[in-house]
Amino acid sequence: MNNFRQYEDAIAKYHKCLSIKTLPVFSWDFHHEFLEEIKNSFLDISKLNSIASQNKWIQNSWDLKARLKEEVIVVTDPKLRIVFASYNMVKMNGYTASEVIGKSPKMFQGQETDLVVSDEIRNAVLLREPFEKTILNYKKNGDVYACLIKGFPVFNLKGALSHYIAFEKAS
C-alpha cells in the first residue's frame, strides 16, 4: 500500500509543477463543438476536392475553406441531383447532408417560394450561366427563410458540364 501512496504523491508533485490552465466543465461542450466544426470542415473540403479531382474540374477562384465558415455549399450533378451538401446545412435549414443527397434542390421550395425567382434560377441553369438570387426556402421544420444563392456551372478540363455548385446562406 505504501508504494501507491508514493506514486500518488509523485504524480501530485509533478502536476503542481505544470503550468497548465484548467478549463471549467461547462467549457468542454464549446471545445467539443469547435473540434467537431473543424473536423467536419476538413471532411467537407476533402470531399469537395475529391469530387473536383475525380471529375477534372477546371481551376476556379473559390476559396472553399473560407466559404464553409459562413456559407453552405451544395453540389449537384448536371441533372440537378444533390451529390454533396456541407455539414453546416443543418444550422441553416435543419437538414443533414444524408437527408438531401440524391434529391433535387426543389425540396427546399414550397408555397411561398416566388415562382419568378425560381424560373430565373432555372433559366440560368439551362443557359449554364452563374446566378445570384434570393429565394424563399423552407426549413425541415416548415419555417420559411430567405436564402441567398450564388450558383455556378462547373466544367471539366474538356469543357463539358460536370456539376453545379451553389454557395448559400440565410439572408
Record the strand order, biggest sheet: 2-1-5-4-3
Number of strands: 5
Order of helices and strands: HHHEEHHHEEE
Oligomer: single chain
Helical residue percent?
40-55%
How would you sum up this structure, described in words?
- With 171 residues, this protein is α+β, with helices and mostly antiparallel strands.
- It is built from 6 helices and 5 strands; from the N terminus they run H-H-H-E-E-H-H-H-E-E-E.
- The chain has a 5-stranded antiparallel beta sheet, sandwiched between helices.
- Strand 1 and strand 2 form a beta hairpin.
Short recap of the structure:
This protein has 171 residues and is α+β, with helices and mostly antiparallel strands. The chain contains 6 helices and 5 strands; from the N terminus they run H-H-H-E-E-H-H-H-E-E-E.
Describe the protein's topology:
Blueprint: H1 2-17, H2 27-54, H3 64-70, E1 72-76, E2 82-85, H4 89-93, H5 97-100, H6 115-126, E3 131-138, E4 144-155, E5 161-170
Antiparallel strand pairs: 1-2, 1-5, 3-4, 4-5
Helix pairs in contact: 2-3
